[in-house]
Amino acid sequence: MTLPVPLDETPSSAPEAQDEAQGAVDRRTYEVRTFGCQMNVHDSERISGLLEGAGLSRVEDGQADVVVFNTCAVRENADNKLYGNLGILKAVKEARPGMQIAVGGCLAQKDRETILKKAPWVDAVFGTHNIGALPALLQRARHNQDAQLEILESLDVFPSTLPTKRESVYAGWVSISVGCNNTCTFCIVPSLRGKERDRRPGEILAEIEALVADGAVEVTLLGQNVNSYGVEFGDRGAFAKLLRACGAIEGLERVRFTSPHPAAFTDDVIDAMAETPNVMPQLHMPLQSGSDSILKAMRRSYRSSRFLGILDRVRERMPHAAISTDIIVGFPGETEEDFQATLDVVERSRFATAFTFQYSKRPGTPAAELPDQLSKAVVQERFERLTALQDRIAREENARQVGTLVEVLVTDQQGRKGGETHRLTGRARDQRLVHFSVPSGADVPRPGDFVTLPITEAASFHLLSDPTTDQYALRRSRAGDAWDRSQADSCAAPAPASGAPRAVSLGMPSLPVRGSAR
């Protein structure tokens, strides 16, 4: 019986060869490049955990030995983005014997053999349903000197069962479901992610508790339609119950979720948000269009009046809630009247942020076959009008924050001008981006700590705070302690606090998925 060879080892029985192989181990690194939504970002954490579990380490500088593309297929330019990157790496790989390239995610699930035909220098292609196969595929590709393709048609195991290399010690993603049962005519996701599969509440809460034990103070619950959670096991109130259960987890200070569907958004969820202190006053609610005729053509099972009614009820219970959205411009058949309806809903909704997209024809979706596809010039002109309106609204809504006192969770990110202004960056409870300065002589917060300060200036996409010493309050947290430990680990220095965080979570147990392709 031949034992599998780990990704970071070369088979040999000679001590000299083993020493040489160990040197290769020390040098073998990986990089994960992520395109797409929060689900892809979370999947990339799983990919990183799998690779580190296989003995690789994340590249710190220079070219990685293994490059993994975790792709998106929602936008038309996703294909060009991937193949452009693969083209650049072709010459790099030719100059680096032993380098490997893998492609996964939604575009891999869709294109399959096409990727290997267009880029035969790729070593492994895997789909959305079998992320866990990546180390074995890379190993087989090295051993056989041949590209490996493995695409499953249904979910193998929940991603939550896989090892995770979290991007942040103070915040984490938690998948509560995967897949989607809707049939929106513009969306290719259901065919790539499959039907909705729900995790049991106990598994979800156990994963959250593990994250909190590692130092996280914020979690974001993920699902393609997160508020339809529970449909698989017959409990339509399951999502509201889950939010309330999160409120009972000691040490968990902030809970967010994305993305809900307006058609399934119920008042019990609004009540749970308003009555659970650690559920944040922030909601991402995709509109897509303000025109009822376009919503019908999109197969979005709600109309603009229902959408606006949800926003009214949310703001009645949480007056200071910040609401964001997604909007598609230029859907086939969209008239100027339809577009004006979208502008009217946006004006009334007063979104804090809107993610606006020009309609992109995706082969395999019903919308791609619809008549009256709009010209690029018309779509671009409408897109510019919409973004100008939303930028004005966001600037006005942010201006209302000036003079208010906000609590900010400090992140390890930095604003574009952070190096010049020496401001740090964080997120308010309502998810608004805040760049702030630390008064001279005051203690500097760590990522994961909390600061309370006044908003002194506003722009369309961020808030600014330049507090005086008496306006600035720092609250150190367990998440900040975890950040210190993670930095000590990365520098091989003694940790300033006892107990080190796990570098790679081993995943959470999960019930078998019905209909598995195993």
Automatic annotation (TrEMBL):
InterPro entries membership: Elp3/MiaA/NifB-like_rSAM, Methylthiotransferase, Methylthiotransferase_CS, Methylthiotransferase_N, Methylthiotransferase_N_sf, MiaB_methiolase, rSAM, rSAM_horseshoe
Statement: the UniProt record of this protein carries the keyword Cell cycle: no
Chain segments carrying region Disordered: 1-25, 484-518
Gene Ontology MF terms: tRNA-2-methylthio-N(6)-dimethylallyladenosine(37) synthase activity
Residues in Radical SAM core domain copies: 166-396
Residue ranges of every copy of the MTTase N-terminal domain listed in the record: 28-143
Residues the entry annotates as binding [4Fe-4S] cluster 1: 37, 72, 106
Start and end residues of each TRAM domain: 399-469
The protein's Enzyme Commission number: 2.8.4.3
Requisite cofactors: [4Fe-4S] cluster
Entry's localization field: Cytoplasm
CDD domains per record: Radical_SAM
Superkingdom per UniProt: Bacteria
SUPFAM superfamilies with a match to the protein in the record: Radical SAM enzymes
Gene3D superfamilies tied to this protein: Methylthiotransferase, N-terminal domain, tm_1862 like domain
Residues involved in [4Fe-4S] cluster 2 binding: 180, 184, 187
Presence of the UniProt keyword Lipid biosynthesis in the record: no
Name of the top EC class for this enzyme: transferase
Primary localization: cytoplasm
HAMAP family in the record: tRNA_metthiotr_MiaB
Quaternary organization: Monomer.
Function: Catalyzes the methylthiolation of N6-(dimethylallyl)adenosine (i(6)A), leading to the formation of 2-methylthio-N6-(dimethylallyl)adenosine (ms(2)i(6)A) at position 37 in tRNAs that read codons beginning with uridine.
Similarity comment: Belongs to the methylthiotransferase family. MiaB subfamily.
NCBIfam families per the UniProt record, alphabetical: miaB-methiolase, MiaB/RimO family radical SAM methylthiotransferase
Name listed for the protein in its UniProt record: tRNA-2-methylthio-N(6)-dimethylallyladenosine synthase
Classification of source organism: Bacteria, Bacillati, Actinomycetota, Actinomycetes, Micrococcales
Gene encoding the protein: miaB
